[in-house]
C-alpha cells in the first residue's frame, strides 16, 4: 500500500488541510476510524480541483456533530438513514461525513437497506472505481490508500468504470452521474460500462430513480465549474427533465450565468473567496416558475445551500441600497463598504444590477481601484522606516490608499508631506569603530551594530553587502479589504523586499577603517599582527624534518597499486 500523505498535504488548500486535520482529530477522540473517500481522493490523485471533502467513518458520524459545531463547523443538513452530515468546515470548506455502510437494493429505485460496515465493504457499494478509493486518516496508517478495485489504473487510463454490473440498476441516478463526470473530466465510459449504460437507458431504469437521489444530483450541478456545459449534455441525454420535468437549457439564464462565472474568476484572481453555488442555482433555474423552483429547492439535501440561494436576491438588494446611499458617497467609503460585504452578494450584483451607479462601483472595486493600490509608495515608506514591523503599518498604508482613492493626495510631494510625520525616529547611530587590537572574529560573522537600513533606491555602498531584509510572511497590504488579494498578501508585487545594507564584518572594518584614525598606528602594533598571520602558516614549534612528515605507509600503498 502506498503512502499519500505528501500528495494529500500538497494538493489540498490550507483551509481544506485544516479541515481534514480537524475532522480527523475529532473522529480520533471519539475513537472512530476515519477515511477520506470518494471524489476527494479521486481529485487529490488526478490533479483536478478538490471541490469538497468526503469523509467516511467506521461508526456513526452523527455523534460527532456537537464537537464539529464547537470547532466552528456549520451543519447544513443531516441524512438519518445513511447517517450522513452535510457541513461546511471553518474556512468555507464543503464537506460530507458519512457512515461506512453496506447498501442492499432489494428493489430498483427503493431506498436501500443500510447497515454499518467496514471501509472496504463501504467502497464496494459505490458507483465507479475511481470513486471507490479511501485514504486513511488514522494513527499508524495515515496516508495509506485503500484501492480494492484498482481505481488508480482507471484514473491513469482516464476511464469511468462501474464497480459491478448492477450499478445502474441499483441506483439509476448513477446514469446522471456517469454523464456528469464524463462531461466534467472529458473521460469516456469504459466499454462494459458503456454497454450497461446504454442498456439501462434503453430499459428506462431512470424512471425508478428516487426523489432523494434527484435532489442530490440537482445540488451537484451548483458545484460544477462549467454548469452550462454540463446542463446541455444532461439535456441531450434526457436527464435534465428527469431532475425536474420543466427544466431545460432554455430555462437557464445563460447570459448572466456566463457573466457571473467570469466575474467569479476575476474575484478569485484578486484573492476573494466566493461561493458561486447559490448564484449558479439561481441562474440555472431563472426562467422556471416559482412553484418549479420551490420543488427543486425542497429536494436539495444541503439546506444551507438552499438558504444561500433564497437569500441571494435579498442580500444583493440590500447591498445595492447601501451602494447608492451615504455609506458609499466617496470612492474610499465605497471601497470600505465592498471590502466588508458578502462576496456572494457582490458577485450576484455585479451581473444583475440594472443601476449603473451600483454596477459601476463594483466594476471600479474589481478593476480601476486596484491600479490606485499600486500607487501607495511602499518604497518611500520603507525609506522613512514605515515598514511592516510597525504596528501602525497596515493602517498607515490603508489610509494613504484611501486618500489617493479620493484624490485627497495627488502628487508625490503631497504623499511625502503626509507620510513624514508618521515616520518613526531613526535608529541610534552605530557605535564608532573600536581602536586598537581587532577583536576575535568568527569568519563570516556580521557585527550587529553594522546593520543599517540603506536608503532604498540607491545602490549599496561600495564594499557593502546588500541583503533583503526579512519580510513577514503575512505582510499586511495596503487595502481595507478583509480578504486581502492573494498577490498582495504574498507581498511579491505590492511590497518589495526592503534592501538593507550590512557592512562587512567587523574584522575587515577594523583592518581598513572607514574613518581614518587621527594618529597613524605605531609600527610595533603593525608588526604585532604579522606573526599572527605567520603562525597560522608555520607553527611556533620547531617543524619536524620533511622526511618525518611523509606517511609511513606510502610505499605499501604504492605496492598495492
Ligand atoms: N456515491 C455513489 N453513488 C451515488 C452517489 C455517491 O456511489 N449515487 C459515492 C461515490 O463513491 C462518490 C461519493 O459517494 O464518490 C461521494 O458522492 P459525491 O460527493 O456526490 O460525488 P463525488 O465523487 O465526490 O463527486 P463530486 O466531484 O461531484 O463532488
Task: Provide structural commentary.
The protein is an alpha+beta fold. Among the domains are: 157 residues, Beta Polymerase, domain 2, CATH 3.30.460.10; 50 residues, no CATH class. It has 28 helices and 12 strands. The strands form 3 sheets. It has a 7-stranded mixed beta sheet. A hairpin with a 4-residue loop joins strand 3 and strand 4. Helix 13 runs antiparallel to helix 14, helix 13 crosses helix 18 and helix 14 crosses helix 16. The chain is globular. Cytidine-5'-triphosphate binds next to helix 3 and helix 8.
Short key terms for the protein model shown above:
561 residues; alpha+beta; seven-stranded mixed sheet; three-stranded antiparallel sheet; disordered C terminus; binds cytidine-5'-triphosphate
Task: Summarize the model shown.
Helices cover 47% and strands 9% of the residues. The protein is α+β, with helices and mostly antiparallel strands and 561 residues long.
Blueprint (SSEs and pairs):
Blueprint lengths: L4 H7 L2 H16 L3 E5 H9 L6 E6 L6 H6 L3 E6 L4 E6 L3 E7 L1 E4 L8 E4 L2 H6 L9 E3 L8 E2 L4 H7 L9 H4 L2 H13 L5 H12 L8 H11 L5 H11 L2 H4 L10 H16 L7 H8 L5 H10 L3 H21 L7 H10 L2 H10 L3 H11 L1 H6 L4 H6 L9 H13 L6 H8 L31 E2 L12 E4 L17 H5 L8 E4 L3 H6 L11 H15 L8 H4 L4 H7 L1
Parallel strand pairs: 2-5
Antiparallel strand pairs: 1-2, 1-8, 3-4, 4-5, 6-7, 8-9, 10-12, 11-12
Helix pairs in contact: 8-11, 10-15, 13-14, 13-18, 14-16, 16-18, 17-22, 18-19
Bound molecules: cytidine-5'-triphosphate.
The site of cytidine-5'-triphosphate has 14 residues, from helix 3 and helix 8.
Amino acid at each position: 500500500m502506498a503512502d499519500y500523505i505528501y500528495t494529500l498535504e500538497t494538493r489540498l488548500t490550507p483551509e481544506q488541510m485544516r479541515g481534514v486535520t480537524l475532522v480527523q482529530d475529532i473522529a480520533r477522540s471519539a475513537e472512530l476510524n476515519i477515511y477520506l473517500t470518494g471524489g476527494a481522493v479521486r481529485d487529490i490523485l488526478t490533479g483536478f480541483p478538490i471541490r469538497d471533502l468526503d469523509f467516511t467513518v467506521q461508526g456513526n458520524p452523527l455523534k460527532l456533530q456537537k464537537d464539529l459545531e464547537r470547532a466552528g463547523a456549520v451543519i447544513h443538513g443531516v441524512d438519518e438513514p445513511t447517517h450522513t452530515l452535510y457541513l461546511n468546515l471553518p474556512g468555507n470548506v464543503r464537506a460530507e461525513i458519512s457512515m461506512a455502510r453496506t447498501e442492499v437494493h432489494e428493489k430498483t429505485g427503493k431506498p436501500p437497506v443500510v447497515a454499518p460496515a467496514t471501509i472496504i465493504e463501504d467502497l464496494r457499494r459505490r458507483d465507479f472505481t475511481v470513486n471507490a478509493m479511501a485514504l486513511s486518516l488514522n494513527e499508524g496508517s495515515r496516508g495509506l490508500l485503500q484501492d480494492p478495485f484498482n481505481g488508480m489504473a482507471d484514473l491513469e487510463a482516464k476511464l469511468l468504470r462501474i464497480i459491478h454490473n448492477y450499478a445502474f440498476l441499483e441506483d439509476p441516478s448513477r446514469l446522471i452521474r456517469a454523464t456528469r463526470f464524463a462531461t466534467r473530466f472529458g473521460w469516456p465510459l469504459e466499454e462494459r460500462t458503456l454497454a450497461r449504460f446504454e442498456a439501462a437507458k434503453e430499459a428506462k431504469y431512470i424512471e425508478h430513480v428516487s426523489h432523494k437521489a434527484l435532489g442530490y444530483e440537482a445540488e451537484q450541478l451548483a458545484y460544477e465549474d462549467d454548469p452550462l456545459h454540463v446542463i446541455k449534455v444532461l439535456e441531450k441525454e434526457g436527464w435534465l427533465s428527469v431532475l425536474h420535468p420543466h427544466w431545460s437549457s432554455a430555462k437557464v439564464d445563460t447570459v448572466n450565468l456566463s457573466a457571473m462565472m467570469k466575474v467569479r474568476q476575476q474575484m478569485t484572481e484578486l484573492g476573494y473567496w466566493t461561493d458561486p453555488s447559490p448564484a449558479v442555482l439561481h441562474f440555472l433555474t431563472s426562467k422556471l416558475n416559482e412553484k418549479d423552483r420551490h420543488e427543486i429547492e425542497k429536494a436539495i439535501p444541503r439546506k444551507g445551500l438552499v438558504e444561500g440561494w433564497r437569500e441571494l436576491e435579498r442580500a444583493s438588494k440590500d447591498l445595492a441600497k447601501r451602494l447608492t446611499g451615504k455609506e458609499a458617497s466617496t470612492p474610499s467609503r465605497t471601497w470600505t463598504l465592498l471590502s466588508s460585504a458578502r462576496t456572494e452578494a457582490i458577485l450576484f450584483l455585479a451581473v444583475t444590477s440594472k443601476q449603473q451607479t451600483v454596477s459601476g462601483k463594483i466594476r471600479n472595486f474589481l478593476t480601476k481601484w486596484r491600479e490606485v493600490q499600486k500607487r501607495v509608495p511602499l518604497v518611500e515608506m520603507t525609506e522613512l522606516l514605515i515598514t511592516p514591523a510597525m504596528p501602525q503599518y497596515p493602517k498607515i498604508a490603508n489610509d494613504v490608499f484611501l486618500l489617493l482613492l479620493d484624490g485627497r493626495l495627488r502628487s508625490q510631494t503631497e504623499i511625502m508631506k503626509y507620510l513624514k510625520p508618521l515616520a518613526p525616529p531613526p535608529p541610534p547611530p552605530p557605535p564608532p569603530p573600536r581602536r586598537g587590537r581587532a577583536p576575535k572574529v568568527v569568519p563570516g560573522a556580521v557585527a550587529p551594530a553594522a546593520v543599517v537600513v540603506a536608503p532604498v533606491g540607491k545602490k549599496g555602498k561600495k564594499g557593502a553587502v546588500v541583503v533583503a531584509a526579512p519580510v513577514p510572511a503575512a505582510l499586511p497590504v495596503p487595502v481595507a479589504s478583509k480578504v486581502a488579494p492573494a498577490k498582495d498578501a504574498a507581498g511579491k508585487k505590492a511590497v518589495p523586499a526592503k534592501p538593507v545594507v550590512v557592512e562587512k564584518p567587523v574584522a575587515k572594518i577594523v583592518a581598513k577603517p572607514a574613518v581614518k584614525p587621527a594618529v597613524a598606528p605605531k609600527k610595533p602594533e603593525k608588526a604585532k599582527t604579522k606573526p599572527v598571520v605567520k603562525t597560522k602558516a608555520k607553527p611556533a614549534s620547531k617543524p619536524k624534518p620533511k622526511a618525518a612528515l611523509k606517511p609511513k605507509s606510502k610505499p605499501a600503498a604504492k605496492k598495492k597499486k
